[in-house]
Structure formats: C-alpha cells, structure tokens
Amino acid sequence: MHPIDPVSPAILSRVMKPARYTGYEWNSVSKETNTDLVSFVLAMPDVYEVGMSNLGLKILYQLLNDRPDTFAERVYAPWVDMEAEMRAANIKLYTLETKRPVAECDIIGFTLQYELSYSNVLNMLDLAGIPVEAAKRDENQPLVVCGGPCAFNAEPMADFVDFFILGEGEEVIGEVAAAIAAWKQASKPGGKNGLLQQLAVLDGIYVPSFYEVEYHTDGQICALQLLVPAAKPVIVKRLIKDLDQVTFATKPIVPFIEIVHDRIMLELFRGCTRGCRFCQAGVLYRPVRERKMETLINYVQELVDNTGYNEVSLVSLSSADYSCLSPLITELITRFKQQGVSVSLPSLRVDSFSIDLAKQVQQVRKSGLTFAPEAGTQRLRDVINKGVTEENLTDAVSAAFSAGWSTIKLYFMIGLPTETDEDIEGIARLAQRVADLYKQIKGRKGAKVTVSVSSFVPKPHTAFQWFGQNSVEEIERKQKLLRSLIKDRSISLSWHDARTSFLEGVFARGDRRLGKVLLQAWQHGARFDGWSEHFRYNVYMEAFAAVGLDPAFYAKRDRELAELLPWEHLSSGVDKSFLAKEWQAAQQESFTADCRHKVCGACGVCQALDAKVVDWGQE
Amino acid sequence: MAKLRLKITKGNPIRYVSHLDYAGTIERAVRRAQLPAAYSEGFNPHMKLAFASALAVGVTSEAEYLDLELTEAADITLLEAQLKSQLPAGIELKAAKYVEQHSKALMAVVNLAVYEIDVLLTTDAVWENVKTIIDNFNSEIEVIYVKQSPKGRREIDIKEYLSEPIVVKPLADNQRKLIINLSIKITPSGSVKPVEVLAVLTDNFGLPVDKDAALINRIGLFVTDGKAECSPIEL
After folding, report:
1. Would you call A531 helix, strand, or coil by DSSP?
2. Which of A19, A25, A307 has its CB closest to that of B16?
3. Start-end of H helices in A403-531
4. Among A116, A448, A470, B191, which is disulfide-ready with A530 (CB 3.0 to 4.6 Å)?
C-alpha cells in the first residue's frame, strides 16, 4: 500500500523542513490508481506551507476527490535546497499522495495568485520533466491549466498553459473533469486539440492557442484573431450564484507541520462592493454573495470534527462586512466554547464597530490590531474611493487604546494616482497622530505603531488599469522622504522593495510577448521571485534586453482609454465603461457608494452573469 | 480529573515531523476523538499533554509515552477505540492506562532511551574492520563530541551517557547493512543524541558507513535504577 518514497532518507535528512515532501497527512485522499480515472494534480507555484493554506485548492481537492471518475493529488514548489537535490539525483517532481511522477498524470492545474510566482510554474514543469512551452508538449504529456486571480490577465503565461479557467471553480472544475473522463473513455478523439476544442466552448474556459494577437509598430495591440470556431470573442468568468449550494472545504487536509494559515478557514461570503479603485479582488469577485449563518455554523461543526483545529478564522475580502457578523460570532463562541474553539478576524474596518467585534473575539489577549487607511490625506483617500475619514481612524484607534490595545499596525500605499509629496507627508502625520492619541488617552507613552507601506501596482480590471506606475526611482525617493519624516521612536516603518513591485506591475499588465522574457529569465535562474532572498531583478532586466522589450512600456506607460488592452477578451463581467467612469471619478475625487446598500453603480456584473447581491442582513 | 498514560509510535510516514509538530498532531487527534481532555486555565488554554522525551526530526519510535489529563476517568477501552480511529498514518496506539493523578512527570522519571540504527556500509568496507572500530570505541574511557549550536560550542563526553557498550551486528540477509544498538542515559544535566554518537563513530573512529542515510529508530524508553528497567506504562 505504501509506495516507496522517491526521495532517499539521505536527501530528506539534508533539506530544510523535509515533511514538506512526504505527505500522509490526515484527510489526504488515496485512491487505487487505474488508467480510467482522471488523474488531476493540483499545484501551487510556491512552498508547501503557502500552498496548503490556499482555500481555493482545498475546495477543489475535495470537489474533485468526491467524484468517482477523478483522483486529485497535490504538488508544491520544492524549496531551492530540495530542487538542487532532486536535480542532482534526477528525481522528477512527484505527487504527495501516491509519490508518482507528475508527468504521468492527465492534467496539472496551477493556481496563479501572484505574478511573481510565474517562474515557479515553469520551474515545476521542468522539474516534472514536462516541456515548459505548451507547443512543445506531446500527446502523452499532461495538460496544463491555470486559474486564480492572475488568470484574468492570462497573456504573459499564454505560451506555457493549455487553458485557463476564469472565476470561481466549483462548477466548472466538474465540467472539465467530466469532459476529460469522457474523452479518455472514447480513446481521446482528436487528441489534446480535440479536447481543447470541447473545453473552449465551456463558459469561463480560455484556450490561448486558439487566438492570435496582432500588434501595432508601437507595441500596442491592434487586434485579436480567433483561429478556430470554438474560440469565443470574450471569455466571461464563472460565478456561483448561491454559495450555500456548493461544496465547501469541510474536510481539508490537516498538515503535520505548521503552515501559514494553520486553522479552520471559514469563508463567510465572496465579493466586496465598497469599490476601492485600486482593488482588483473587488472587481473580480463581484457581486457580494453571503452564505447563510446556519450554513456557516454547520460548516464549523463539521470542520472542528474533521480537523481537530481549535481556531476558526473568518476569511473574506472584508469579513467585518458580513451582515450577520455579530450574531455569528456570538453563536460560534457560545457553541464551541466547550471544545476550546476560538474565533479570529483577520481584517478590520476602520470604525468603532470593528473594535467592539475585536473585543468580542479577542476577549483578553491583546495582540495588535491592523487598519488600512491606504493613503495619508483625505484627498487621496477620495481618489481611491476608500470611503474612510481621519475621524473614522482616530475613533477606531481611540476605542482600541481605551479597550487596552497598544499595538496598532497601519497599512498604506505609495505611488497612487495623483499622489504628491503632501500625501506622503500625510502618512507620517497620521502615524504621529495615532501615536499621540495613545498618550492622550493613557497619559503615558507606550504605543507601538507599525507603518507598513507597499508600492502601488496598477492591476488589470480596475479603474487604475490605465495608470502609469511610478518608476523604481520615484518610489525609492518617496520611501526616503517618508523615512525622513518619521522621527517618533514609537513608530516603526517598513516598506516593500520597489523593484519587486515594478516587475509585478510589468507582468500584471503584460501581453503575450512577455512569455519570451519569462522563459529566458527562468532559464537564467529566476525562481521564487516573490521571496526577497531569491529575487533577481537583473536576470529579468537582461531577459527584457535580450528579447527586445522595454519593461517600462508595460509598467510606466499611461494608457489611453481607447487602447486595446491585453486582457480585453477576458471578462470579469464588469463593463470597461464602468471602470473608465471610475477612473474619471478618481481624478475628480468623487465618491462612489457601495452598491450593496446604496444605489446600483451600474458596473454591469449582475446583468452580465444573471446574478444578484445576496445579503442576509437585508432579507 | 484523571491522568491517562499512552504508549504510541512515530512511524516512517511521519519520520520527518518535529517533536513540536508531533505534539500538535496528537492534540488535534485527541480533539477529533472527543476525549474529555483537560485544558490549562487562563486566556490561551492549552491541552494538558506531557511527553516523556522529545524525539528528533528524522527519528522514528516504537515507544513514545505521554500523559494526557482528562476531566473525567471515562472507560478506557472506549477512549482507546475513539482515539485509534482518529490517529493519522504513522501513529499507532500501543497501550493506555490510568496512572495516579499526582504521579511524577514522565520527563522526570524516564532515564534511559534505547535506539537501533540502520546503516549501509560503504562499498569497500569489510565487516572485520567494523568490528575493530566498534571495539576501539567501546574500550575508550572518554570520547569527546563537540556540539556546535547557535548558543555556542560545547564539549561533551559521549561515554558518560552510554549505559552499555555499543552493539553492532550485520543483518543476516544483507551483509552491507548494519544494525547498531545504543542505550543512552537521559540525565537531569542532559543527554546525547544517537545521531551525535553516529557522527563520532564515522568522523572520529572511521566507521565506514553513510551517516546521512542512517535510519534511527527509538525502540524503547525506560525507567531504570541501574539494575532493573521497566517501561513507563509498567510503572
């Protein structure tokens, strides 16, 4: 029954965290492998602890393994030490469940959560002994599919991937598995191309090889040619209309080693319509759809029984917006107190309501609270439609200090559209105000204010998709300016590497031609780009030069509204005209209300997908 | 309140799990099994679980002991059945019994660990040479091992912790494979790890084996007074 591990004890004794590579976790699924079963490998181009924390993969694992025609296994990116051992000993990338080579499976699916994980996709394919370029793979090699938020601009990955899935996977993954099962049963009519033709007609499926992009001489896109009849002109995302009706990850794998989110993850709802103009998730997951409180409580019961975890984290884009949050927390705390189960809330809104909630869930332990004003001045917060005032923040922080908290973390972005040095100064001023508030309320020093500043990266499908990203030099200048303005010793400042954000920006809004850059950078050693100790900026810059592309063309350039964008054919259901209207509203600093409570903002998603907002607080 | 003493294993599938993660795994299994576990007071309550001796990453064991405090003394066969159904691959429940509520902590009484190490002889090695090396080691009065840790450099005398001479024998069906038997004392002032003994054997005494590929298995933990020894579950 137990297969022979492909990796020897000698190797496992040399690498860090060897239990990343050995499997056998509680709730991991084992099936008798036979050739009729669709063998599906679910992959994350990052390490085990990160991959195992992804809720989407947990859901897909359960859904696929519930099917009698499919066996889903897992694989994650081996850390660099393990990669070196595997390459030296010629060990091919293997699945954690059966330890068989990934290359023997029918299909490998990667979730793309972050642009700087792309090189790891190539590296994992190569470690599996699978040609990285789709066109070079033969009939006997696995299909490669990608999903996740980055699939909404699939183009930089188009050379490497057979098809993409846009949007929520609960329904479409079953359609894909069924299509592959039928195709295998019928002895693979038409080969891989035949299968892709069938898949291409399914909603939400994008087969990049069925399209050809034509460019103007200046590098902008002039047209998208559809090469086969099955190719749809626009691929619209998939969406689950009623979240209470689909499978949730109630029997997730319980790892032996500590992972990033080592607790029960309870997804309260999908979508967020507060309408922050920088936020891609706020567009991609529209509209808001809540789960019923009763459904959630039943999930927690199942999850506690199935995992033995005693901490529940409420995860959603903005969990504090769940309409029944207070009764839900009360019910969870009372019902599971006996079993020692605690509840945690990862994201807080900047208002005093949040403090009451924080008190409710944290009771005595006063770990830090995190707020995200995002910008330093009211003007700039209006530009980004953050809908939060300085008064909201000071009220929330005052309430927190009065309630006994002393550690506050503030999240900001620099490099936002219309930003001036005054806005940077505003960050320092706001942080100082928070530190001063503590002294006013408590009559002594002792606050710990952590200011975390990320560099804004414009993302596709947002109102800021036309905005030219700040250059590396400009971001570094702003970081230095901010550093010079923060003098109080109770405030600590941290920021993101400007070059990392720049490269993220290039791939976020890149086109198909970037595939060549990615390939070359990977060939010259790029991997784990999101991990600062492995990020090699120069490898990428050399690759751009070799391929003859200018990264600034993708990141720094302001786009005209009329420009044909590389992701134009990949639709979130939100109209481009709505985003354009929001882009103009940003420049006029005008506020757009949350469509869930106020008037419909006419983004188009409900019409395009025949969906509606599901808010149980209003029923 | 009651104190339940368990004898469990750490098998090959979870060889590379650390002691802390192993303990967390047991905790989650106990919760899934819905045993009436007792928790500490205070805001961040933790399960009252105490092990006899930590086991290193990469080492398996046939005999790990732990005391689990319960809020009530439920029927032991029932508890065993509940727990068995929730144990992951690599952990088997071998025995369980109630012990005196105020019995001494396992960690304070267990003072001897017995290991078996499987190693492969290097290709040109001969068995006679191995025997000589082990005899040399056993006849030394003092063998110094230098412990390098982030906390600094420390010299320890390995022989101080070995209660008996090392025994080595080849496996009958495979002459390239060796089994080394070690009995290591666990004292209030510390102990030595089997991997450290092996390192001294290879690096200082020239034992011709691949130490990276060694498979270390703890076969017993005992309470001994120098004459008789018994396992914590027989106490």
Report:
1. coil
2. A19
3. 421-442, 472-485, 498-508, 514-523
4. A116
Go through A252-284 and write b for each residue having 16 or more CB atoms within 10 A of its CB, e for each that does not. bbbbbbebebbbbbbbbbbbbbbbbbbbbbbbb
CATH 3.40.50.300 fits domain A9-236:
no
The pLDDT assigned to A2 comes to 44
When pLDDT is cut at 50, 70 and 90, the band that residue A260 belongs to is: very high
The residue among A82, A256, A363 with the most chain B CBs within 10 A of its CB, best to mutate, is A256
Indicate the range of A301-315, A481-495, B39-53, B57-71 predicted with least confidence: B39-53
Domain map (residue ranges) of chain A: 9-236, 514-543
Nearest Cα to A418, choosing from A371, A372, A362, A376? A376
Nearest residue on chain B to A23, alpha-carbon basis: B13
Residues of B in contact with A8 (CB under 8 A): 213
Residue A256 at interface with chain B, using a CB cutoff of 8 Å: yes
Lowest mean pLDDT segment, chosen from A125-129, A471-475, B228-232: B228-232
The answer to whether A184 touches A106, Cβ cutoff 8 Å, is: yes
Judged against a pLDDT cut of 90, whether residue A534 lies above it is answered with: yes
DSSP string computed for A91-143 = PPPB-TTT--BGGGSSEEEEE---GGGHHHHHHHHHHTT--SSGGG--TTSPE
For A391, list phi and psi in degrees, rounded to 5: -65, -40
Query: Residue A362: its pLDDT value, please?
Result: 64
- Looking at per-residue pLDDT, the higher value among A370 and A419 belongs to A419
ipTM of the complex as predicted: 0.94
Tokens of B188: 């209030």
pLDDT in tens, A192-201: 999 999 999 9
Residues of chain B within CATH 3.30.70.3190 domain(s) are 112-230
User: Is A525 exposed, middle or buried (CB count within 10 Å of its CB: 0-12, 13-18, 19+)?
Assistant: exposed
* pLDDT score of A268: 96
Q: Which residue bears the tokens 């205070």?
A: B42
The domain B2-108: what is its CATH number? 3.30.70.580
DSSP state of A566: T
A337 touches chain B (CB under 8 A): no
Q: Does B69 score more than 60 pLDDT?
A: yes
Domain B112-230 has CATH 2.60.120.260: no
The answer to whether the CB atoms of B212 and A26 lie below 8 A apart is: no
As a whole number of angstroms, the distance between CA A180 and CA A202 comes to 13
What stretch(es) of chain B map to CATH 3.30.70.580? 2-108
The one-character DSSP state at B158 is G
